[in-house]
Amino acid sequence: MNKKTLTRVLLGLTAITVVGTAIAYFVIKPEKPWLAFYVACCGGVLVFNFLVSLFLVNKNLKK
User: 45 is in which domain, residue-wise?
Assistant: First the structure.
């Protein structure tokens, strides 16, 4: 896989995770606010991990 493909995959995963987290948050929020907060935190951690991975992939493939 080249840099462009990896970047596209990681950005796609980030976008899917953000959309899925937002949908899950607003669906769960009326019934269980604490669970909605937990889901949002987990989604945020995943997005952060994908962005760090994207940075590291771009940094390592410049060599």
Answer: 3-61
